[in-house]
Amino acid sequence: MIRVVVAEDQSLVLAALSALIALDGDIEVVAQTRDGAAALDAVRRLSPDLLLSDIEMPGMTGLEVADIIQAERLKTRVVIVTTFGRAGYLKRAMAAGVRGYLLKDAPPEMLTQALRQVAAGGKAIAPELAASMWDAGDDPLTDRERTIIRLAEEGRTNKEIALLLDLSPGTVRNYLSEAVLKLGATNRIDAARIARSQGWL
């Protein structure tokens, strides 16, 4: 039996994914979670074979969860299922040790096949994305710059970001200036737009 934790912040999609993969007699959904922190907690507690996760979730993204799973050397393998078909996301996923990367519009049988493949030690990547990964540029942002750009994209001021991250407003301004320069952007909003379009957020 393949034991799976499913992480997805949209309730209908979470229920649909869980019901779909539970139809197969050899796959068991052991937990459903709606944010990254809960997904990580379930993986640590239950030690499932697989984590099936979306990328964008409250608090912590699926890629950040995958990074921690890799850093802690947990045995759970990560499969991402997302609407984001950008090569930048795929490259970040591969760097985080993700073993499967599928798009949400994939045929249902492809999902369960991918779960079995990854559980058996293989990899499963949406074929339409695999080729594009080689042409994608490298992500120039640091993790700290990425976090600050996300918060700026939400409309938070330098002072608010500084309070959240325990930094000085001047340090936040420096991080944002560096990110804007790296991305060839005109301002913080333009930087967020460019980074998101490349799959770097």
TrEMBL record:
Alphabetized, the UniProt keywords read:
DNA-binding, Phosphoprotein
Q: Which residues form the HTH luxR-type domain?
A: 134-199
Question: What molecular function terms (GO) are annotated for this protein?
Answer: DNA binding
PROSITE patterns associated with the record: HTH_LUXR_2 (PS50043), RESPONSE_REGULATORY (PS50110)
Q: What protein name is recorded for this chain?
A: DNA-binding response regulator
Known Pfam families for this protein?
GerE, Response_reg
Q: Which domain of life is it from?
A: Bacteria
Q: Which residues cross the membrane?
A: none
A GO biological process this protein is involved in?
Answer: regulation of DNA-templated transcription
What species was this sequence derived from?
Answer: Niveispirillum lacus
User: Is Electron transport one of the keywords?
Assistant: no
Q: Where does the record place the modification 4-aspartylphosphate?
A: 54
Q: Residues in domain Response regulatory?
A: 3-119
Q: Does the keyword Phosphoprotein apply?
A: yes
